[in-house]
């Protein structure tokens, strides 16, 4: 692994940091999340049209930039600093890679160019609260998380008119504003039980998307209701290919999420350091007290370690050498939780007010761990996969 960034990667970071600093301050974020879309459409058009962010990790034959997961992770790190709301994670890190990996040639040609241009956004719809399990991060991806038999989840049936879906998914990231859904649905009943992925248009008959109230407003979620909705099978009827694609996508998405969390943690730390330099107590800045220095030093070490892990996971995902995304995500989420908690604590009385900017980072830390964690499950599943703890049968 070459730890040095290329000139192109440095330019991506610099350009995004300058743009976000001008267009996405705390006040702009709070205003954007309360709109119908949940983000600033004008900023999204700039990110898509001028910088090509939605197609950053897509091949140029489909209108993409032709970069890798590494560049997408670096971009998300910069967006994470400002907690910039937008469909980039849901569309470009979760749904689009599945279409690229599983879709037929016709599906790729029809769907990927508008996704790369940002004209169309997609969302991954997974039933219940099983997103981390479906992506192979915190549970057995071969389980019945999509709703076994006819009990819950999303069910798929095929008739003379094609595939039809019914059921609902409750925690679909940016689902209220997406034009396309990649839906995980159970089919085959008990005789040939399997989970497949389907493409569903948001404006199709029998499809409804309802925005839900979420702890982290910068990460909007929706409930997707499917009532005999027409769907198109994504790729072939191949359960093994689906699970492989979900696991590969999950690993890359975890690396991107880890980089985004590192950006948020770094920004929370920087804001806290700036505040303790100015806030005075007993005639001196509170940042001069040794106890405060030690606490912030611990946060700094945690953020830097998480950054190294996130960069390595992104590089490994791009190179296809190993899957390190889950562990990197666990470390990054832990660093963000620590940085956000210290920000609230060290801002003192104002830090405890819900309206303070520190709580944007606190909510992001808590919300991401609810969606993609918790941290101990990410680590436990990675340890099980690596065979670190072998259970021995004891004869009685």
From TrEMBL:
Keyword hit for Flavoprotein: yes
Residues of the Acyl-CoA dehydrogenase/oxidase N-terminal domain: 6-119
What is a GO molecular function of this protein? oxidoreductase activity
What InterPro entries does the record point to?
A: Acyl-CoA_Oxase/DH_mid-dom_sf (IPR046373), AcylCo_DH-like_C (IPR036250), AcylCo_DH/oxidase_C (IPR009075), AcylCoA_DH/ox_N (IPR013786), AcylCoA_DH/ox_N_sf (IPR037069), AcylCoA_DH/oxidase_NM_dom_sf (IPR009100)
- Please give the Gene3D superfamilies that the UniProt record associates with this protein: Acyl-CoA dehydrogenase/oxidase, N-terminal domain, Butyryl-CoA Dehydrogenase, subunit A, domain 2, Butyryl-CoA Dehydrogenase, subunit A, domain 3
Q: What UniProt keywords are attached to this protein's entry? A: FAD, Flavoprotein, Oxidoreductase
Cofactor(s) essential for the protein: FAD
The UniProt record lists the EC number as 1.-.-.-
Q: Which residues form the Acyl-CoA dehydrogenase/oxidase C-terminal domain?
A: 255-380
Keyword Oxidoreductase in annotation: yes
Which family is this sequence assigned to?
A: Belongs to the acyl-CoA dehydrogenase family.
Name of this protein = Acyl-CoA dehydrogenase family protein
Q: What is the scientific name of the source organism? A: Streptomyces monticola
């Amino acid at each position: 692994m070459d730890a040095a960034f290329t000139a192109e990667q440095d330019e991506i970071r610099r350009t995004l940091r300058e743009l976000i600093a001008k267009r996405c301050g705390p006040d702009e974020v709070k205003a954007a999340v309360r709109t119908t879309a949940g983000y600033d459409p004008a900023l999204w058009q700039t990110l898509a049209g001028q910088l090509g962010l939605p197609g950053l990790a897509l091949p140029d034959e489909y209108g993409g930039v032709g970069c890798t997961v590494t560049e997408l992770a670096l971009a998300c790190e910069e967006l994470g600093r400002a907690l910039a709301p937008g469909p980039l994670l849901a569309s470009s890190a979760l749904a689009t890679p599945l279409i690229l990996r599983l879709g037929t040639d016709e599906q790729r040609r029809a769907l990927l160019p508008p996704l790369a241009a940002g004209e169309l956004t997609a969302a991954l719809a997974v039933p219940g609260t099983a997103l981390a399990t479906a992506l192979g991060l915190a549970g057995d991806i071969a389980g019945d998380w999509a709703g076994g038999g006819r009990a819950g989840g999303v069910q798929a049936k095929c008739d003379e008119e094609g595939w039809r879906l019914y059921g609902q998914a409750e925690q679909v990231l940016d689902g209220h504003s997406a034009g396309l859904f990649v839906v995980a649905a159970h089919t085959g009943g008990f005789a040939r039980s399997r989970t497949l992925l389907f493409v569903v248009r948001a404006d199709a008959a029998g499809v409804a998307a309802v925005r839900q109230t979420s702890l982290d407003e910068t990460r909007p979620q929706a409930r997707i209701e499917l009532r005999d909705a027409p769907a198109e099978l994504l790729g072939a009827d191949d359960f093994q290919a689906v699970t492989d694609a979900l696991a590969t996508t999950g690993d890359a998405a975890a690396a991107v999420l880890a980089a985004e969390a590192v950006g948020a943690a770094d920004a929370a730390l920087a804001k806290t350091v700036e505040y303790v330099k100015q806030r005075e107590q007993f005639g001196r800045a509170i940042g001069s007290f040794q106890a405060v220095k030690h606490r912030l030093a611990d946060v700094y070490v945690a953020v830097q370690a998480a950054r190294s892990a996130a960069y390595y996971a992104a590089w490994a995902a791009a190179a296809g050498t190993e899957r390190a995304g889950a562990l990197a995500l666990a470390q990054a989420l832990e660093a963000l939780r620590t940085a956000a908690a210290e920000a609230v604590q060290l801002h003192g009385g104002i830090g405890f007010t819900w309206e303070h900017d520190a709580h944007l980072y606190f909510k992001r830390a808590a919300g991401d761990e609810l969606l993609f964690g918790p941290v101990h499950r990410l680590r436990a599943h990675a340890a099980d996969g690596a065979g670190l703890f072998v259970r021995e049968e004891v004869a009685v």
